[in-house]
Amino acid sequence: LIVVMLLGALVNAATFGSFTFLAPVVTDTAGLSELWISVVLVLFGAGSFVGVTVAGRLSDRRPGLVVAVGGPLLFVGWPALAELADKPVALCTLVFVQGVLSFALGSTLITRVLYEAAEAPTMAGSYATAALNFGAAAGPALAATTLSTEFGDLGPLWMSGLLVAVALLIAFPLRTVVAAGRSTEVLQ
């Protein structure tokens, strides 16, 4: 339970660390007008919707597949976004893709929290919410520390890549725990 809560918090921290600081990437790095901030945020939101929808169909029965495919892609995606943020088409495309991957992986991990705590269903929801909220608060705080570095506006994207890398390093040796399917208690 603690492992999947930690992984969920790390992925959520990466998601909100970058999401919080997308506006300057859109206007300063990509050189787009302020109108494009809304467009990019809508693209991220649409990607999030797709990610939750796809993961919702897969994460109950094949969470290992979502984690094994989505985790490394999410890890590669944040630095790719940092490197290609000055190209508006790449920025828009990668923001959508990162929305898909962030919410597919994040929702799968939170689903795992619910299954790991299936014997205490009331607490399971509390644990999942706590993990999400911790990540949502810690991510932007960590990302903000990068803004005054040489990475500047792109620092949060690099920090998100680092957070996902930490999650993958934790998840790999414990992959059987993370990848377990539904527990029998939930199916009854």
What does this structure look like?
α2 crosses α3 (35-58) and α4 (63-84) packs antiparallel against α5. This protein has helices at 2-20, 22-29, 35-58, 63-84, 88-116, 121-144, 155-171, 175-178, 184-187. It is globular, with a radius of gyration of 16 Å. With 188 residues, the protein is mostly helical. The longest helix has 29 residues, at 88-116. It has a single domain, classed as Growth Hormone, Chain: A (Up-down Bundle), CATH 1.20.1250.20.
Pick out its properties.
188 residues, Growth Hormone, Chain: A, 9 helices
CATH topology: Growth Hormone, Chain: A
Could you report the average pLDDT, rounded to the nearest whole number?
90
Bin the strand percentage: under 5%
Radius of gyration: 16 Å
Give a count of the beta strands, DSSP E runs of length 2 or more: 0
Superfamily (CATH H level) name: MFS general substrate transporter like domains
Q: Rough shape? A: globular
The helix/strand order is HHHHHHHHH
> What is the terminal-to-terminal distance?
20 Å
- The CATH architecture comes to Up-down Bundle
**Sequence stretches where pLDDT stays below 50 over 5 or more residues:** 183-188
How many domains is the backbone divided into?
1
How many strands, what sense, and barrel or not for the largest sheet?
none
Task: Give the proportion of residues in helices.
Answer: over 70%
Number of helices: 9
CATH class: Mainly Alpha
Estimated structural class: mainly alpha
